[in-house]
Specification:
Blueprint lengths: L4 E9 L5 E12 L9 E3 L8 H8 L12 E5 L27 H16 L6 E5 L1 H12 L6 E5 L7 H15 L15 H15 L2 H5 L2 H6 L4 H13 L4 H12 L13 H6 L4 E4 L10 H8 L5 E3 L14 H14 L2
Helix pairs in contact: 2-3, 4-5, 4-9, 5-8
């Protein structure tokens, strides 16, 4: 287990107008910051992921993100359960009253963490999967002179309409459970809603070929699709706080790097502002972050290329050891 640390932001003004009075970012680091402070890699967590999850999937000796070479900072995003979230905030921002948080807010909080805690003003690479990928784009757009390279894995600079259809389904699964109680559940969390959340997610997280070939049998030891849904999907989401999930869904749904006064909603202008070397890694079979979105983005990001991950694992491709080697090659290229 990593040693988690807390960076106290104090009163933190959010993009949508609320001020979190005691905001915090929980993070972990691996590796050592060199004297020049030029070996920094930032890897924001993905949805409901922890810094330990990031280390387990994306870092390691002899891998691209090698702690022997790089100082890897892994911040948990707002709503992720470690940093300020519905589950750990005091009144009046607890549970269902937690305010709306954007990727812009996460990037500004993480920028303060790097500058104030470590004196870091430039980052060699920002990489992340899913929600971590969204944050990587925003880092490069908001601080174009401070980010040398980005590798968004299974993400997009702006959440697409079809993606929002998926999010509407999983949100409804929770809020339709009477035990949700507008976010103020007590000893009885919305278990039925979380189970339905997991079952809706199961049809989107992996691809149709993954299920058709019954890849879950060899990969996860499940004897049937029902067992796989119960052990993998329900097993994960039943451990999550429902309000935290909903907070992250809101951030995900409203992800848009141009939703900021600097760009005034001009998406192409926001993309063209990115100076970092950009390697976009969509999974070829990802349903809700399809490669077509990244192909459009790459036309407007000056130094971008798209490398679809050749996988049947859909959005969950970083879990596949074979796909990890493909991802590592892109990360290594971005670090050269």
């Amino acid at each position: 287990m990593l040693q988690y640390k807390t960076f106290e932001l104090g009163p933190f003004a959010l993009q949508k107008g609320t001020v979190l009075p005691d905001a915090k970012i929980v993070y972990a680091t691996v590796g050592r910051l060199n004297d020049a402070k030029d070996n920094v890699v930032l890897v924001p967590t993905w949805g409901s992921g922890s810094p330990d999850d990031v280390v387990g999937l994306l870092t390691g000796t002899a891998r691209a993100l090698d702690p022997e070479k790089y100082f890897i900072v892994i911040p948990n995003h707002f709503g992720g359960g470690f940093s300020s979230s519905p589950s750990n905030s005091a009144p009046p921002f607890e549970k269902g009253r937690f305010p709306r948080v954007t990727t812009y807010d996460n990037v500004n909080a993480q920028r303060r963490l790097l500058v104030e805690e470590f004196g870091i003003t430039s980052v060699r690479l920002v990489a992340g999967w899913s929600m971590g990928a969204m944050i990587a784009y925003s880092w490069a757009a908001l601080f174009p002179d401070s980010v040398r390279a980005i590798v968004p894995i299974g993400g997009a600079a702006r959440t697409g309409t079809f993606n929002k259809v998926f999010l509407a389904g999983i949100r409804s699964a929770i809020v339709s459970d009477p035990d949700w109680n507008n976010g103020f559940y007590g000893e009885t969390p919305p278990i039925r809603g979380l189970r339905q959340f997991a079952r809706v997610y199961a049809g989107w997280g992996f691809s149709e070929p993954f299920y058709r070939r019954e890849a879950f049998k060899a990969a996860f030891g499940a004897s049937s699709v029902e067992e796989f849904i119960e052990t993998f999907w329900e097993g994960f989401f039943l451990k999550c706080d429902a309000n935290n999930l909903l907070a992250q869904i809101w951030t995900w749904e409203h992800n848009d790097i141009s939703a900021h006064p600097r760009f005034a909603g001009d998406f192409e202008k926001a993309l063209s502002s990115i100076k970092a070397r950009t390697i976009l890694l969509p999974a070829a079979t990802d349903t809700y972050f399809p490669p077509v979105d990244n192909e459009f983005e790459a036309k407007h990001i000056p130094h971008a290329e798209v490398r679809p991950i050749p996988t049947i694992w859909g959005h969950m491709s970083p879990l596949n050891p074979d796909d990890q080697s493909f991802i590592d090659r892109a990360l290594a290229d971005a670090l050269t």
